[in-house]
């Protein structure tokens, strides 16, 4: 458990907040795809922490940025934190997106609040000389986030459900055979229907990883609240802990139906 | 200058170096928490419910936050007794503490078989009989609401094992003292209480329950006054020691349970908020005792009981 100081906290789109915090001590180890488990208030009214993905880390200034959507009482309370406030944080926690140094071209796919973890990943991939193409999907232009930031590391393709920005439709619209033929690996984070569609399109074509989202309790593997169906080491299908065994899983291990 | 406080307590044949243990289901099988601190700090460890066959558990969402607490409906997910004995329990022998294994089942036969295998394995120093899980259709609660059925199960399990038997009671009953007396008479060596209270939350935007199986067990500070009352009530109805639990968040909460009549305490939901909850609570209890000239924490057990007063057990019926 570490205490962080809020250094910046602003709205960047409809109900979307960007919070930057500074480590009071050493910057803990971090990897793209991991999450922070944040207490939103002191006292016993809101007990459970909120899991929010790492979006960007600046090691030189020991600053870490998260981007989250205000979607309930917990994130509403978090949105009320002001510059200078202190945050009680566990983590970074969970399994990260593995980076394969031999890859030449990686395809990143983010949907809605699944876009933020793609930024630190894009930065690290680009830093290893791996070419990055990012497909992002949003409900509409009002919820669009991080397009400019992602553009610093490679081409960004945008899809919106209502067509108010980029191409109308789902992220899978862009996933043509031509594009897939160029990709050595894919990394995806977003709502389950999107991840399920991505898994289907990529099957037998490109290896990759899915970052799952489930309502969490403890965040550290104690309660078995945040499970998702996935293949177990013995080949059978069972519920695996998203917080501890995930949130990132090899795409072929995740089971969406059945 | 510093006075030493004797933090040890006795639960049946088990001598615990302090009265604090994690509650079953809130600590998995210990491996995860061993990343955070030395488990030997704990008084004991109570691992997740184990059943004869593997159990997949319930669909998600399994958890929901509620004011001052949470609902859970995990559904006794576990790999089954064979894998628990083979893969989950042996690592706990590295630590200096008694290992208590929670046992769940659906009928007398599978409870007895699971308990016997755990007892024979040598990896369990005591068993906690789960007759109170509210989150599975056929998983013990039917044994936890009827004193005659509960007593029959307890006597069968007790006859099959060599280690002490702790029976975990459900608060979802009309008269918990009657349940406690029934399991004591049937051979329970200790009682742990309370399991969660059946609760429900509805997402009004989606017009449906927040928990996939609709209801879940309520835990956290919200249930503490009910748990304290029930421990107080049961402490007057039985002679066997009680492990008290229900919303303990800090040392003062734990002291309150001891004063109500508990000989030891279990910490559940607090572990989800703060991984260091158990060691912090142990330290806070010790500090409290030192500051209040309590030489032995065990001396606190039951001190809140009104001498010569009415029995609360008789009042709440």
What does this structure look like?
The complex is a heterodimer of chains A (258) and B (317). Chain A contains 5 helices and 16 strands. Chain A has helices at residues 73-79, 117-127, 147-151, 177-182, 192-202, and strands spanning 2-13, 16-23, 35-38, 50-53, 56-58, 63-69, 86-93, 105-111, 131-138, 154-160, 167-168, 185-189, 208-211, 227-231, 237-241, 248-250. Chain A has a 7-stranded antiparallel β-sheet with strand order 4-3-7-1-2-6-5. The longest helix of chain A has 11 residues, at 117-127. The radius of gyration of chain A is 18 Å and the shape is globular. The mean pLDDT of chain A is 95. The mean pLDDT of chain B is 94. Chain B has 317 residues and is α/β, with parallel strands linked by helices. Chain B has helices at residues 31-34, 81-88, 108-121, 141-144, 147-160, 176-185, 224-235, 251-260, 270-273, 277-291, 312-315, and strands spanning 9-11, 14-16, 20-22, 45-50, 63-66, 69-72, 99-103, 126-130, 165-168, 190-193, 197-199, 202-203, 208-209, 216-219, 242-244, 264-267. An 8-stranded parallel β-sheet of chain B has the order 3-16-15-10-9-8-7-4, covered by helices on one side. In chain B, strands 5-6-14-11 form a 4-stranded antiparallel β-sheet, with no helix packed on it. Chain B contains 11 helices and 16 strands. The interface between A and B is medium-sized, with 29 and 35 residues.
